[in-house]
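seq as requested:
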Amino acid sequence: MFKQRFVLDTTALTDLQTREVMGYASLSEGMKAILELIADARLHFGISCYVPYPSVYKEIHEFASRNGCDREVIAKIDTWLVKKSPDRYRVDVTSQIFHEYVSYMRERINRGMGVAEDAVWEAATACLSIENPQSKEKEYREEIEREVIGGIIGKFRNKYRAALRYGILDSAPDIDVLILAKELDAAVIASDYGIEKWAEQLGVRFVPANTFPNMIKEYLKHLPVKEKEPEPGSGDKKKKGPSDEIEFI
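struct tokens:
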């Protein structure tokens, strides 16, 4: 038996695909709808949604503020997300996980180095193919920057990101999400392959961000008849009052 809890990564509230599935065009509308579902689940079923504090909480707060979310969304973040610092000193992670992560990172770094070498060769080859009249050195340099270097750097950044960052834990908030979820025996909600991959390694339940809203709606379908609402998460309906956190098998 365990109490149902979720730990949210920033992408649980900001994922574009999730907004599209829910039918919302703006970030503010999408975050508001998800937070209202979280509020309904908390009030009716005692389901708790945590965010690591201060790392992920600060990240969500700043992301919402930078992208034009109104005060109501900020208030919902502060009200319905439970802020908790992960206990980094007491949560055990086996040495095998650490060993696998270091090996995995070495492999990804080598891939990134290969992408960099390819970009250098491509740039050198392209530059050699351009004629260099000595009397037009300035124009020649500008042409290389415009026609060769800019495009190659753009491709390099995309390939390097895919080679090195995809599937790894590349920030402290990512690690905090996993540590807190393991500490609470909670499920992780994210749209991040790195978190998904290492949640599996740590034995932590993972729920994709784009399926989380429908999961909460499914819970809310099973309210007692006298409490049931036509459209859970609409935000303008009277709540019935908090219940004790229930246990799920």
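DSSP finds ten helices and seven strands in the chain.
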